[in-house]
């Protein structure tokens, strides 16, 4: 005769396993959410400005929203670092970023949506692989964290209906300056 305790333990284990693997689990669901077509347009604009013929990009986005705090700390009345505000929409958009930071999560990238010069990789080699966040789009502005070997920056893009997403400026949190003598 089997003990009731054994049945309770088996049932508890099965229930716990189901909860962890369930698509209703928030972490699993957030990871599988796709990036929108408009966000891919921002990414294409970013990569089109790079001179490299081949770009190694990590296959998942950065899910850490701490760069938003950095951008807010660097904001002053007329701009962010060396970026000058050309209209009132940019500072207002920056102020809205914390409200959207909870939606930022790791997401898988789709090679077909990025263009021919992008090679997605699972490698974590920080010297050769670029890492990006998903773009956060607020009104006519998009904000994108980029991490490369020698720099970490928040890229800011502006949407022009006639020209699409265009680079506005960058706010660097880390940049290597090489001196040759």
| Order of helical and strand elements | HHHEHEEEHEEEEEE
Mean pLDDT: 81
Total number of helices: 5
Unreliable stretches, pLDDT < 50, 5 or more residues?
21-31
Number of strands: 10
Shape: globular
Description:
- This protein is of the alpha+beta class and about 180 residues long.
- About 30% of the residues lie in helices and about 25% in strands.
- It has helices spanning about 5-20, 25-30, 35-50, 65-75, 90-100; strands at about 55-60, 75, 80, 85, 120, 130, 135-140, 140-150, 150-160, 165-175.
- The strands form 3 sheets. Strands 6, 7, 8, 9 and 10 form a 5-stranded antiparallel β-sheet that branches. Strands 2-3-4 form a 3-stranded antiparallel β-sheet. Strands 1-5 form a two-stranded parallel sheet.
- A hairpin with a 2-residue loop joins strand 8 (about 140-150) and strand 9.
- Helix 4 packs antiparallel against helix 5.
- The chain is globular, with a radius of gyration of 21 Å.
- The N and C termini lie far apart (about 85 Å).
